[in-house]
Amino acid sequence: MKLEKKDGALLLAIGIWNIVIWSNFAKNLAKTAKDPEQSRPAPYYIAHAVLIVVDLALGGLLVRLGGKAFFGRKG
Prior knowledge:
Helix 1 runs antiparallel to helix 2. The chain is elongated. It has one domain. By secondary structure, it is mostly helical.
């Protein structure tokens, strides 16, 4: 399957969106963890940390694939 330039632009946009949103969520989660008034159980932070890592990895993959399709790079 060959991706066209418009497909690459869409993948780039979605990948960048994922990275921006989940990076912001990670920053907010870290603030919550440091706030003594916000006491949450450890599994809450573990689950959200896993979500953040997985979604950042997917965002990076989408940016990579979108960049290849948009800019026409091979490999």
